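[step 3/7] fold_predict: job queued, chain A
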Amino acid sequence: MKKVVLLHFFPLFLAAGVMAAGEEVDYSKISEAKSARLNDVVARYIRIYGEPCAIFQVLNPRSGWEVISTKRVCSFGGKSFETDFADAHFEDVSFSSRGAHLTLSLTPLEATGEREVKCFVPIEGGEIDTMVCESTIIH
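[step 4/7] structure written:
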């Protein structure tokens, strides 16, 4: 039997590392990707095989698909996906005109159950803002 707890409107903020706009991504190792046009730019979500981080990018289609900005999401609540969780992955990634919507699924190292967090990555113009998470479901 699954235990479900839902906390509404309890903001959680996700610390994310920022890459330089032109920092290289090894596109040959992409395991998952999604993209959408957001007004004058294209937003992209990427996962690289074997890496715990998610990568968000904004591209300018009018300038040879130049990468305007890139943000890596590698932690949640000050804890690293690589060392502080047994598993961390993203699900249900979709885009709206304001940014990326997704579910972050986290399994802590201690046996307390999987946690799903609804998150939003604001994207406006060429800027990617900090991921904001609002509700948690514990299984």
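[step 5/7] annotate
The chain has a mean pLDDT of 82.
The two ends are 9 Å apart (CA to CA).
exit 0
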